[in-house]
Amino acid sequence: MELFRQFYSTFPIANALRSQLGRTHYKIILRIDNSDKRGFYIAEAIKSNWTPRQLEYQVHSSL
Question: CA-to-CA distance for 23 and 46, rounded, in angstroms?
Fold first, then answer.
């Protein structure tokens, strides 16, 4: 339930969601506290067509 609250407080407008990203992508992105970093990883994941595993690797390696 807490994850849902965090999700809707981070992405309050449904139009802000990207159809190219799945639920697992968003679970990873929600762990990023900085909104600029979150935006960067969203854009990069879409542009580079990252799988959730690739996204998680990039976030942890501090791209």
Answer: 14
Q: Where are the domains of the chain?
A: 2-60
For residues 25, 28, 30, 31, the Cα torsion angle rounded to the nearest 10 degrees is: -170
pTM: 0.77
Length reported for the chain: 63
Place of tokens 């762990």: 31
What are the pLDDT tens digits along the chain (63 aa)? Answer: 787 788 878 876 665 667 888 889 989 999 999 989 999 999 999 999 999 999 999 999 975
